[in-house]
Amino acid sequence: MPKQRIGIMGGSFNPIHERHLELAICAMKEQKLDRVIFLPTGNPPHKREGLEDAEHRFEMTRLCMIGLPKCSASRMEIDREGVIYTVDTLTRMLKDSPDLDLYYIIGEDTLLDLPNWRKPDKVFTLCKFLVCRRSEDGEPDQENLSLLEQRGARLTFLQMTPMDTSATEIRSQLASGIEPTALRPQVLEYIRIMGLYGTKTSLEHADMIYAKLKQSLSDRRLLHSVLVAATARKLAAIHGVNENQAVLAALLHDCAKCMPLSEMQKIAKENRLLVDKETMQSTNLLHGPVGAVVAQRDYGIDDQNILAAIRCHTVGKVGMLPLDMIVYLSDKIEPSRRSYPALEEVRRLSGSSLIDAIRYSMESTLEYIAAQKSTIHPDTMRAAQWLGRMAAKKNAVQQNKRSEMNERTN
Ligand SMILES: [Fe+2]
Ligand SMILES: [Fe+2]
Prior knowledge:
Helix content is 56%, strand content 8%. By secondary structure, it is of the alpha/beta class. The radius of gyration is 26 Å and the shape is elongated.
């Protein structure tokens, strides 16, 4: 059987950004790698300024790998104490799985540093190197390349066009409140939730909340929750809603979603939740009201507005507040949502009017349910009718304003 071709991306990933991901994907395509393992470095014995804790760097990396085929993050280096050398990591990998062909992916500037690695000659026998050019101009230092090759280094240059992205620049943008474009939305939101790199937006008890969510949700559901929080944060800023409430409600909106139905039903009965028969039999419906109980019981959330937004995010309700609408909509439009016919229009409308966006979203859901010949939950039906009345009222107010303006100018 041919050996598995494994790419290795080492680094501090402080934080992981698009350039790292592009490099891994490019190496995988060009060199037909079977997979790429990201290996964030552990905490150095003496804390380096600006270097976030290994657990945070690992988690950001892991969040990027969810849904990225053939890529994974390994705790191999962060779980070991003291200074960790590449030679030890590679030796261990090959000891655990001798049928691997290892390709270490590096930037061109690392080439100069290779002779300073611990036991470089041994490293050269353990892996091949895939090298990414630093810039399009200028040739690699041939003398250095020959020296390395004479020592046994096996080097292949990747075709990838170099692109300048620097983690230092990203960190300084974050500290000055600028949104870096080279971060995946889940990484940016994780940074903000935890208040890393000098961002001033951390949630209270963020570590506890995130750790519990991570324990209770599947990876996909966790990623979805972080992305719903990122979307809710944006919508809260646009529509003047309290950002912390929106982020917290969004982050926790599916906190009960991965429970078995029997456990949800038990919680609903114990807490005497007033839910109809249909809701009681459906995880898709019941995780809303049960989620509100769990958010209070396990996450210590006492804010009734947050709990109400979690409770009604599945079917909506009459009298939804802007916070409820933001959570409902963010759930429908977060960036990893698979495309559906109304998606782009709901996204567009969310940026200008919550009522219009949620109305459009609900109506398209109702049409879909009707086409499937499924039953529509009465709360959704009532909410849609209420939203219709709200929209009509809003239009009438706008019309009156326009008429008054016209009269004044005439
Ligand atoms: Fe949900
Ligand atoms: Fe959700």
